[in-house]
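--- STAGE predict ---
source: upstream dedup step, 1 unique chain passed
mode: sequence only
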Amino acid sequence: MTRTALITGATSGFGAAATRRFVAAGWRVIATGRRAERLQALVDELGADHVHAAAFDIRDEAAMDVALAALPQDFRGINLLVNNAGLAQGTAPAQSALLSDWRTMIDTNITALVTLTHRLLPLLVERKGAIINISSVAGVYPYPGGNTYGGSKAFVSQFSLGLRSDLHGTGVRVTTIEPGMAETEFTLVRTHGDRQASDKLYTGAAPMTAEDIADTIFYVATLPPHLNINRLEIMPVSQSVAGFQVARA
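--- STAGE serialize ---
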């Protein structure tokens, strides 16, 4: 039986790599994202029998509903939801951060994630499916400038544990994957397009790749149905947890 995954944020990074990884293993993938041309490139690359492009802004609830209602018959039997769409915006400390950046992160990382999850829960329960939510080590370990981004990812991790508790006995698996440094478009988005800042962060650091995380997502998704990984934290060897800060008079 061919299984179907819905992967949000599939236009780049983890989402695009995961789409390729699942299709390579014979899955169908509903690939969502804002940039229709990038989704179409995935369809052209992997084939319309394997990828259905659903272009919409994850923050737009009405557009989400339209996209779900328009799924082709072959893509309606969703077995796996990968809530990957998310972003960080801004690196400033809280006292000088832009409120608009905070709201964008909350709307994307929290509100959109719970809305899509709520929409698909009845189907996932019916099919004894799985949910994989992409969180971050930022939701566990605070750092200067992490403020709302870290808070939003902490929500994702705790929400996932709550889902796991509520779905007890249904057969639905719920996992949070919490990556550390991975080289994608993440820092470009966070810095509003500062390529120099992005290159500086990753140069010489041997960060994880989008394919590393895609392989991890696939591993979790294809475990035997009686196994559930609650939380999986993953970092490159070059990254570790820093010490406490101390301000001295």
